[in-house]
């Protein structure tokens, strides 16, 4: 599925979808007007590259919201990162990266 279609689907689910990097988007789930989950969608389709410095990647991407003093404490534990991959892959580098992320 082309990136534009994925973004359009995300925008339907998250009207305030925010682009936080070239191919990374952030959506916030709310209930009764209050946020309860922050979801990041990485559409790069390059899991091996993202998984190499995974800790640094998470710090750079999630840290801004996670460590924000205005964030509610319970929301900090509800940050999720999704890597959107075009097709299932079986090459060794991909499988290693998948294991690292899991």
Can you characterise this structure?
With 102 residues, this protein is α+β, with helices and mostly antiparallel strands. Helices cover 42% and strands 25% of the residues. It has five helices and four strands. The chain has helices at residues 3-13, 47-51, 54-66, 73-76, 92-101, and strands spanning 18-21, 24-31, 34-42, 79-83. Strands 1-2-3-4 form a four-stranded mixed sheet, sandwiched between helices. A hairpin with a 2-residue loop joins strand 1 (18-21) and strand 2. The radius of gyration is 14 Å and the shape is globular. The protein starts with a helix and ends with a helix.
Shape call: globular
Largest sheet: 4 strands, mixed
Helix content: 40-55%
The number of helical runs is 5
Would you tell me the overall average pLDDT?
Answer: 84
- Strand residue content: 25-35%
Low-pLDDT parts are none
SS elements, strand count: 4
Helix/strand-derived category reads alpha+beta
Please give the radius of gyration in angstroms: 14 Å
Q: What is the H/E order?
A: HEEEHHHEH
The separation of the N and C termini measures 24 Å
> Strand order within the widest sheet?
1-2-3-4
Write the layout of secondary structure elements.
Layout: H1 3-13, E1 18-21, E2 24-31, E3 34-42, H2 47-51, H3 54-66, H4 73-76, E4 79-83, H5 92-101
Parallel strand pairs: 3-4
Antiparallel strand pairs: 1-2, 2-3
């Amino acid at each position: 599925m082309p990136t534009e279609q994925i973004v359009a689907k995300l925008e339907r689910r998250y009207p305030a979808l925010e682009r936080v990097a070239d191919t990374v988007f952030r959506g916030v789930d709310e209930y009764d007007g209050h946020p309860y989950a922050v979801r990041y969608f990485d559409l790069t389709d390059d899991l091996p590259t993202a998984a190499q410095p995974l800790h640094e990647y998470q710090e750079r991407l999630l840290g801004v919201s996670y460590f924000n003093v205005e964030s509610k404490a319970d929301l900090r534990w509800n940050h999720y990162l999704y890597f959107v991959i075009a097709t299932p892959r079986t090459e060794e580098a991909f499988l290693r990266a998948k294991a690292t992320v899991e």
